[in-house]
Write a structure and sequence with these properties.
- By secondary structure, this protein is mainly beta.
- It contains 2 helices and 12 strands.
- The strands form 3 sheets. Strands 1, 5, 6, 7, 11 and 12 form a 6-stranded antiparallel sheet that branches.
- A hairpin with a 6-residue loop joins strand 11 and strand 12.
- It starts with a helix and ends with a strand.
Length: 159
């Protein structure tokens, strides 16, 4: 997943969304036209809107990047979803979020602390101004496991 997000970052693609099948195809074949975005990465702050849902990011040197995801009403047929997050800063995956099972309308949220535990390592990493950051959120319906989606945001840590 880190490799796919790195390719999208290198292309200057700031955000995207789609179905779980779309995501699987991108992992297998690389980015496709189903991903949208503009050249150049934004700061890790602000509101990022898309059909599947809205992402809100804040950033500070003290607190890192608190985030929130509000899925759109188009996800209502999925009912309760299993919601996951993978977050990378300079290709280091942060070990900061546990999967949640909540109704699709829940306001999913979490932190990316400025200093975080690196997944699969005993080391910590402290983000520096200018670091590339990638957020990938996926959700799967509990009652319809083939139904779900993904949303990602690539940004630059510039508090």
């Amino acid at each position: 997943m880190a490799t796919l997000l790195a390719k999208l970052r290198a292309q200057g693609i700031a955000q995207g969304e789609g179905s779980l099948a779309d995501l699987q195809r991108q992992v297998e074949n690389g980015p496709t036209s189903a991903v949208s975005g503009a050249r150049g990465l934004p700061k890790c702050r602000g509101t990022f809107r898309a059909v599947s849902g809205t992402v809100t990011l804040q950033e500070s040197m003290r607190h890192g990047i608190p985030w929130g995801v509000k899925l759109s009403a188009g996800n209502a047929p999925q009912g309760v979803v299993k919601f996951s997050a993978q977050i990378f800063a300079n290709k280091r995956e942060a070990n900061v979020y546990r999967t949640h099972k909540e109704l699709w309308s829940y306001h999913f949220h979490g932190p990316l602390p400025r200093t975080f535990d690196v997944k699969g390592s005993r080391k910590n990493y402290t983000m520096k101004r200018g670091d590339d950051v990638s957020f990938l959120w996926t959700w799967k319906s509990v009652s319809k496991p083939r139904s779900g989606g993904y949303r990602f945001v690539n940004c630059e840590f510039k508090p």
